[in-house]
Amino acid sequence: MGLNSDGSGGCRYQRLSDDLFNKFSELVYEKTGIFLKPEKKELLNARLGKRLRATGIDSFKEYYAYVINDRSGGELVHLIDCVSTNFTSFFRENSHFEILKATVLPTFVREGRGKNKEILLWSSASSSGEEPYTMAMVVADFISQHPEMRYRIMATDISTRVLAQAKAGVYAEERIVKVPVPFLKKYFQKGVGSSEGYVKVKEDLRRMVHFDRFNLMGDFPWCEAIDVIFCRNVMIYFNRETQQELVHKFYQALTPGGYLFIGHSESISGLKHDFTQIDATAYQKR
Questions:
Q1: Which of the listed residues 7, 115, 161, 205 has the most CB atoms within 10 Å of its CB?
Q2: Could you give the domains of the chain?
Q3: Residues with Cβ within 8 Å of residue 123, at least 6 apart in sequence
Q4: What pTM was estimated for this model as a whole?
């Protein structure tokens, strides 16, 4: 999640003024917690130019008014999609999945989790689905040796665009280069003909993950219900105040003994929290 250069084109004749950039930035921050730095102005100009063409609106000023006055909230979703860049891959930052397999899940077995209550894992910024599908492969492989354990994986993102891709489960072959061969054979179907160069996630794996749209800035409906939270490479786009709020909500949502994973480029060491650090970017609620 965040705004990064992707070379996308914009509207040739439209230029986003500083005043309107600030207004869009304030709106995005209010609704999502994403902080758009001034250097993102040109990219926002290009991204919103596409929405002007799609809606037939002639100016950024008119488009801003359209978003504000759209009571359905539908155009706000499109705006958020415009400013959300979602890059990920299968088994990205693999050390987290090694910890999940070697430390977290064995600990749950010793504690008897997954018997009376299913283990709940949450990919909180799931993007196009690679992260939660990786979680599902790792968990399913482990639990094949512990059939008494029950689990559920939920995956959320603020972008409807990437959620649609995640649910479809179709990826370019270069996105699966880190997937172990046994998992490739078990969970992916290779495209042929017009689909050559792509793979599709098999139904068995797709059924393991429940996708839904969720805004991390909203109220969490869970209290001490989640056992594992992945929130990786998201907080770098938030200011300190928003990071503090989010870490607190994650702590409240986790069960005692639950785990939080953040991105390798992130840190919560400067924030107030009660987590115990178990690895560079892995934490436990004691």
A1: 205
A2: 18-83 (1.10.155.10), 95-285 (3.40.50.150)
A3: 131, 132, 135, 153, 154, 155, 156, 209, 230
A4: 0.79
